[in-house]
C-alpha cells in the first residue's frame, strides 16, 4: 500500500473513531435537562405528599427496579420543589436538530416539556392535574403551565407534554423561572387511589411525533398538513359508530371461517410437506427463532406477581428516551411471539402456550393496550407479529377470557375507525398497507359474527379496492405506470413491493367470497407484478429505484414472489396463464432462501408453510411452461426509469426531475448514492440467475460511487461522495430526496425500441463545499435503444468547479481473474495502474458488451486500487478495491462538454461499427438531441427546449419539451410521442414537509403541438389526437399528453381521390 493510500486510510479510520466517540452523546441526550428514575433515595428530595403518602415500590417499574408510589386521597396534593431541569425545559430552544429518527431542523422557539410514565393497578374515574410554576405556591395558585391526565386506565401509560403548545395558560404574566410541580386529583369520586410514577424526563424539546390518546390529548402544531399516525380520531370514530344493518349471521360466520381457514393454512400449512421442495431452509430458521424466543423470554425476566406480569420495561419504537435497560415493543413482539405461537399450534408444546399467553399479558401491562399511544405511535407499523400470534392463539385466549383486551388493542392500533370514514381523496401510506392491511383483516376475523363484523368486512373490501387503485400526486401507492410510491417518490423494492405483495395476499384470501376485491384491483395487481418483472434483470432492479436500500435491490425474490403465485391462482386453478408462466420462470432463477424474510412476520408478512405449499404446487402444476418478460422497452415516467430487454441482454437507466427525486439516504443507508439518478445506465448480458451481482460491478467491495456507468458526474474522492443528510434551515431533513427545475427524465416506447432523455440539473443550493451538491452542474443526456444498439449522446455539460474533473463513465468492474476486458481487441492488464488514453476506440467488457467511442473525445481507462467505503451493519467503513474504470473526460470546469458513444449487444464485429456508424446525429445541443438510424428507418428526438430550432429531420417544431420517434416505411409513418412533463403539482427543492394539497393533487396532462415535415393523415382514430392540420407542406399535430405515456399515431400520405374530388 503506497503512502497516499496509507494517509487516506489513516484519516478515514480517524474519522470513524471520532464518529464512534461522538455516539456517546446524541441529539436525543443533548436535549435532556433532568431525569428521575427513583433508583436512589436522593431522587425523592423535594417531593412532598400532602394528605397522602410517598414510598418507593418494587411492584411496578419502567426504569431500573423500582418506582415512586403515591398513595393519594381525595384532597391530596403532590408537591415537587426544585425540580431538576424544569427551568431549562421551559426555556427557549436555540434551534437545531433535536432528534435521531427522521431528523429535522427546528428553529428557535419554546419546544420543551416533559415525559412521564404512570401506572395504576385498576382504573379510576377523574383526572390528575399537573401544574408548573416558579415555586410550589405559584404552581398551586398561578401556574404558567397546566395539563390534565385521565385516570381511566390500568397498567403503564406515558404522557408527553410540550409546555408551550399543550399546557400554556393564556394571559400568564408571572415568572418564567420554572422550579416546581404540583399534582392534584380532580373530579375523583373515590376517596383514595394509588399511582406509580417512574422514568420522568425533562426536555428542551418534546417531539412533534407525540400522539394524543385517551389519557392525554395534546395540542401540537403539526409541521405537516396531516399527521399520518393520528390514532385517537379514528378510535373515537369507531367508538361512536353504529352497526345495525340487517345481518345474515350464518353467512357472516361461514365467510369468516373460510377466510380464517385460508389464513391459517398459509401460516401453518396442511398435512403435507410440499413446502420442503422449495429448499428455503425455513425449518432451520424456525427452529433457531424458537430457541431465540425462549432465550429472549428468559432475558426479559417476565414473571407473574400478584395478578400482574412484570418484566423488562418496554418503549415505543420512536421514543428516543427509553430507560437504559428498556427494549422496544415492536422488536420484542417480532422476536418473541410468533415462534412460540407456531410451536404450540404445530407441536402442542405447553411451555410455548404458557409463555406466549403470559407475554401478551405483559404487553398489555406495559402499555401496549387500547387507548394508549405510548407517547408516540409514529412508525408503530410492525403489527403482524403480535396480530398473527393472537390469531393463532385465539381459541386459548377466548377460553381464558383474554381475547377481548387483545381485540380492543388491535382495534386501536389498526385505526379501524378509518375504514368507516374512508378518505379516497388521498393515497394510503404503503406502511399502513404492508404493515396494517392484514392486521385489519385479522382483527375483523377475531370479532363475533354480528352486524359489526359484516359491516367491517364490507368496509375492508372497499378499503382494499381503494389501496389497489391509482393514487393521486405524490401519495402512496400505485401510479398510472405502476410505479409504487412512498416518501413522495418511487420505491420499487421494500415499501412498494411489500405493499404489492400484501395486497395480492389479501386478494387470495378474499377470493370467491362476497368481499372479493374488484376487477380493477385484480387488473392493477397483475399489471404491477408484470411491470416489476419487466424492469428486473433476474430479480434485481435499478439501484436508483430502490430508495435508501440500493444494495437490497432484489425486488422480487425477497419482496414479492409469493404475490405472483397468489395472483396467478383462483382457488386451485390458474387464473392468469401468462402470469403463472412468468412466475414459473422467476421460480427457476430466484434464490430460494431469499424468501425466508417474508415467511416470518415482521413489518410485513406473507404466510409460512402454506405459502410455500402454494408456490410449490403452482410450480409443479406449470411443469416446464415458463417464460421470461418480453423483449422491448418499459418506461416508468413516475420513476424516471426505462428498462430495455433484448434476448439475454438488458439495460436500465434512471434520472430525476422536478417531480421525481434523486435519491434517499438515512443514517447508514445509501450514503454513497447521490449520483444514482444522474443517468446511471446499468447494462447486463448473460445468465439472469445472479442478476446484476453476476455482472462483476461489486458495488460494496471498493466501487467508486462517483463514477457510475452511464452517469455524468464529478470524479470525486470517496470522502466527498459519502454524505450523511444533515438538516438545516432550508433542507429541514437534509440534502436528499431533491427535485430539480427540469421536467425531462423520462422515456418513450415504440414497438420494441425507444429512447430515454434526461435534462440533468443540480439545483441543490446553498452548499458551501459545492462538490457533491453543485447548483452550477448541468448536462443534457439521451439514450436511443434500437435493436442491438444503445446510442448515447450528451451535450451542454458544464459546471464551475475547477477542483474536480467532470466525467461520463462508460463502465466500472472489479478487477479479478474472472473478468476479461479488452480495448481494441487487446486484453486490458489486471493491474495497469497508469491512466491510459486514446482518441476513440472500442471496449469489449467481461459480459460481451461492446462500447464504441468515436474519435475526438478524451477517452480514459485505468485498472488500479481505489479507496471507497463498504456498507455493513448499517454503517460505512473504509475499503480498498482494484477496479477497471473507463470514462470520457470532460475536464474541470467544463463549459459546453459533450459526448457520443454506442453500446452494442450481441455483437461480434465491433470494428465495423467503429469504422462506419449505423446512425447519423442530426442534432446534439441544448435544444434537442436527435438521430437518424438508417437500417431501421427510425428517427428519434429528445426535445429539451420548446419552440427551438430543430435540425435536419422530420420534426420541425415542438411547443413543449417532448420525446418523439418516427419510423417510416414506404408511404407510411408511425409517429410515437411522449410528453415527459407528467404534470404533477410543483413543490419545493425537496420533498420535505410537502403539504397535503400538493401530495394529493392529481397530475394534469397538457396538449403538445408538433410540426411534422410533409403532408400526413392519421389512418386510425387515436383518442389523444386533438387536431391534425395539413398546411404549407407540413402537418401540425396536437396531442393530449398525460402521465408520460407513449402515444402511437399511424400516418400516411393521402393519395388522390378515385373520383377526382379533393
From TrEMBL:
Monomer. This is Lyase. Belongs to the polysaccharide lyase 8 family. GO terms for cellular component: extracellular region. The keyword Calcium applies. Its cofactor is Ca(2+). Residues 644-903 form the Polysaccharide lyase family 8 central domain. Residues 37-215 form the Lyase N-terminal domain. Residues 1-21 form the signal peptide. One of its GO terms (biological process) is carbohydrate metabolic process. PROSITE patterns: PROKAR_LIPOPROTEIN (PS51257). Ca(2+) binds at residues 39, 63, 198. It comes from Niabella soli DSM 19437. It comes from the Bacteria. GO terms for molecular function: carbohydrate binding; chondroitin-sulfate-ABC endolyase activity; metal ion binding. Residues 284-584 form the Lyase catalytic domain. Keywords: Calcium, Lyase, Metal-binding, Signal. The active site is at residues 379, 487, 495.
